[in-house]
Amino acid sequence: MTPDVFLFWFLALLIVGSGLAVLLFTNPVYSALSLAMTMVGVAAIFITLNAYFIAGVQLIVYAGAVMVLFVMVIMLFDIKSEVQAFTSGKISGAMKLIAVGLLSGLIVGGIIMGQKSFVGELSKDAAAQVAEANSAKMKRAAGADAATKELGVALFTKHIFGFEALGVLLTAIAVGTVALARSRGGTHAK
Amino acid sequence: MGHDSFEITINCIKLVLIFLMMVQAVPILVWVERRGSAFIQNRFGPNRVGPLGLLQLLADAVKFLTKEDFAPDRAIRPLFYAAPVFALIPATLAFAAIPMSVPLEIGEYVFKIQGYDMNVGIVFILGVSSLAAYTILMAGWGSASKFSLLGALRASAQVISYELALGLSIVGVILLFGTFNLTEMVIAQQGPLTFRAFGHTISSQFLPNWGIFYQPLAAVIFFAATFAESNRLPFDLAEGEAEIVAGFHTEYGGFKMLMFFIGEYGHMMLGSALMIIFFFGGYGIPGVTVADVRQWAAGITDSATQISVITTLVHFLSFMLKFVLFLWIFIWVRWTLPRFRYDQLMDLGWKTMLPWALGNTILTALVIYLIS
Amino acid sequence: MAEASGMPLGGVIFLTVFLAIFGTFLIFLARAIGGRRTNNSAAKRDIYECGIPGQDKRETKVSVKFYLTAILFILFDIEIIFMYPWAITFRDFISSGQGTFVFASMMIFLAIFIFGLFWEIKSKALEWD
After folding, report:
1. Which of A18-22, A37-41, B232-236, B314-318 has the lowest mean pLDDT?
2. Residue B97 has pLDDT above 80, yes or no
3. Is residue B193 domain-resident?
4. Among positive and negative, which fits the CA dihedral B216, B219, B223, B229?
5. Quick one: which of A83, A114, B4, B352 is 20 to 30 A from B267 by CA?
6. CA B48 to chain centre
7. Which 60-119 residues of chain C touch chain B by CB within 8 A?
8. What's the complex ipTM?
9. Listed residue (B181, B315, A128, B274) closest to C4, CA to CA
10. Burial of B169 (0-12, 13-18, 19+ CB in 10 A)
11. Number of structural domains chain B divides into
12. Are B153 and C66 inside 8 Å of each other by CB?
């Protein structure tokens, strides 16, 4: 087992484990913290793929911003009743069990599929691809930020309209959020 | 990891050493802070235990260790105990990515004087240190106290607000150097100050080529934002004693409190180190290049290893000198400025620093666009 | 480039695990060494309060401003993150002759950003009292 493979399995187990923890914890605070852990694990997976910038974005945006908001909201709301509703009751319990069952089914299915012959042929191609990717990796490692620069070039030539649309979209979300927070009838309306 | 087990071992030892260095620095900083504040406020400060009160550090450690380990009944224990452990992680992970000197060459091995060389140094550091908000929220929620919760709310809102100004002020720096890599930034800042515009080159004889001369506004915004990120005065609303007792660590005492302190001082060290890397030439020595130092070392000994060791040591000293200076500024400011009010704090972050940082970004881009 | 692939991540994971173990060890050490008082009155074990019965945190009502700040932070954070690849490629674009186009498109993005920021300020969403 090479270090790279070991690293992948370690991170994969971490992600799947914390993903399961999101489902299985009865306390939403722990669930949210586990989800944050999952995000950090995904960022680490991006680093193993040499996508350093994407890993940083995953850390900053998902683990550092979105999940902080989730944790903050869950912690600060009066969630005593929600905790009760979430943990007890046959329906929510059944839903959780079904969700976990489906997920395990997916995992087991993936493993069985991985042993079938047609995937075996694919994985031969995959081996060639890995070799190619490795040589590309070596090339890319020459300039520290080359991968990020590629990303930047793609973003500002091919996807420039998407980029500008994103700016408009984010502003629209900001405006909508403020409008909602100011609406009358809420507990904090003035 | 590295290629052979020797290299891996050395790298692991290096990481542990960096962490131990940070932990070691905390009691010394506490001592400097107490003596410094006493000096500023015309008092004596701790001067009983040992010469100049230096053994106070040891006495404090013993006191912390022998305190009763206590958690309130209502506390949510897993979070309550996990929060101080987690407080160590973000600052240390980020600090280990700081290049502190030129690489050490021993035989065929090259050891970087930094924990690990992340390709995207800045983005990694920003990402990891943004995880510090979880510590605050975990501590605040875990202690089940009203004061802790209010403190955690304030602190997390403050930390995330200033992260915006912090991230935006760095855009100007990235535009200037054109890289995310911290080592490349340091290398770019070596040599004398040189402006190149419209085919002319203006060079200064005595000023070094430091980022502060290109990005003074970004430096000010960045430095102010690091104060807010490390929850220090004048931004320590999170633990405003007059209002919410001690903020999110109201219920903590003894060693757990000390671990929060290590995290806080870690952020302070991280802020100082980043200031040096971005704006003050990193480990570079003004007026002298790395090659000059290497030549000077070659005049002393013949062995290649010794030359490398001397070069590394000289640059490490240069880094440490700047580092200590910035840490002192952190302490100095703490005892000079009063605390903000919360609305002033948020106004400063969102309405003053964010627009200024935006303006700095636009100005930098415009200048770079026009002169090239 | 022997250490290019897994090295930084290995270091990060090593340091994280080391810190977690070290921190846990410190907590247990402090627990083992620390003194024990026999006084276990209810007042001691209660959360901090000045002379009145401790209030549970669930009785604390929190202003919606904090959520608003967090959401606005996410939005602006994403916009700032998108400036990073621009900042790093800007010089390359200039040297390849596309500088004007990229500069203009970023200025449009920034104009939207500034519009959003000033709208927030004007709508008093960032007003604290």
Report:
1. B232-236
2. yes
3. yes
4. positive
5. B352
6. 31
7. 60, 62, 66, 69-70, 73, 76-77, 80-81, 83-84, 87-88, 90-92, 94-95, 99-100, 103, 106-107, 110, 113-114, 117
8. 0.82
9. B181
10. buried
11. 1
12. yes
Half-sphere exposure of B286 (CA within 13 A, CB side): 14
Domain-wise residue ranges, chain C? 62-129
Chain C nearest CA to B91, separation (Å): 11
DSSP state of B288: B
Inter-chain contact C67–A149, Cβ cutoff 8 Å? no
The overall average pLDDT reported for chain C is 78
pLDDT at residue B185, as a whole number: 85
What DSSP assignment string belongs to A135-188?
HHHHHHHTSTTHHHHHHHHHHHHTTHHHHHHHHHHHHHHHHHHHHHHH-TTSTT
Q: Quick check: helix, strand or coil at residue C2? A: coil
- Is pLDDT of A123 > 60? no
The verdict on a CB contact (< 8 Å) between A57 and C81 is yes
Average pLDDT over residues B101-118: 78
Supply the angle between the helices A3-24 and A90-115 in degrees, to the nearest 10: 160
C25 phi, psi to nearest 5 deg:
-60, -45
Domain around B156: 67-371
Q: Do C75 and A155 touch (CB under 8 A)?
A: no
| Residue A38 binned pLDDT confidence (cut-offs 50, 70, 90) | very high
Contact B165/C at CB under 8 A: no
Q: Is the Cβ of B206 closer than 8 Å to some Cβ of chain C? A: no
Q: Across the strands, what pairs with B196?
A: B201
Residue B33 lies in a domain: no
Would you call B18 helix, strand, or coil by DSSP? helix
pLDDT at C1: 32
With contact defined as 3+ CB pairs under 8 Å, the chains touching B are A, C
Partner C contacted by B225 (CB < 8 A): no
What are the tens digits of pLDDT across the range A73-111? Answer: 877 765 665 555 555 566 767 777 787 788 888 888 887
The model carries a pTM of 0.84
Token reading at B326: 């910035």
**Contact status of B144 with chain C (Cβ, < 8 Å):** yes
pLDDT of A124 > 60? The answer is no
Min Cα separation B215/chain C (Å): 14
Of A3, A69, A171, which has the smallest distance from its Cβ to C116's Cβ? A171
Interchain pair C3, B2: CB under 8 A: yes
